[in-house]
Amino acid sequence: MRSASTGFLALCLAASSAWSQQGNTADDVSQGHHLAVEICAFCHLAAPDQHAQPILHPPAPPFAAIMQRKDVTAQSLTDFMKKTHRGLDEPNGMPNPDLAEYQITQVVAYLMSLKK
Predict the structure, then answer these.
(1) Which of 18, 70, 72, 100 is most solvent-facing, going by the fewest CB within 10 Å?
(2) What phi, psi does 22 have (nearest 5°)?
(3) Cα–Cα distance measured from residue 79 to residue 41, given in angstroms and rounded to the nearest whole number
(4) From first to last of its 116 residues, what are the pLDDT tens digits of the chain?
């Protein structure tokens, strides 16, 4: 009886995890859009409805243009946002945005929603 209960519990947890990953995609896109407009828009044209133009001159590539690149995937975006791309060899590279894991997931969801 105990192994049946343990198996049932494991099944419920797995189903719950899968449901939450699928169930929050629209919310992740919305939250990612919000983060992009509040954080990324300082350097990028992150969204057509952002309140101000990027302060970086010249601005970093627009998100819509980045998402038209054939080699861009959710995993490549996630990996990119976890690292600093600025240094002595690349003084104008993107700094690490220092986002929490869930925030990276949200921004990536928003970016992937722009892919055509």
Answers:
(1) 70
(2) -80, -35
(3) 20
(4) 444 433 433 333 333 334 344 445 899 999 999 999 999 999 999 999 999 999 988 899 999 999 999 999 999 999 999 987 777 777 777 888 889 999 999 999 999 999 98
Closest CA to 54 of 69, 68, 37, 66: 37
| Cβ atoms of 47 and 114 closer than 8 Å | no
Structure tokens at 42: 């300082």
Task: Give the SS3 label for residue 23.
Answer: helix
Query: Hey, where are the domains in the chain?
Result: 25-113
Write out the two tokens for 7.
Answer: 């198996």
Overall residue count recorded for the chain in this entry:
116
pTM above 0.90, yes or no: no
Helices H, strands E: what count in the chain? 5, 0
In the CATH scheme, what is the code of domain 25-113? 1.10.760
Structure tokens at 44: 């990028």
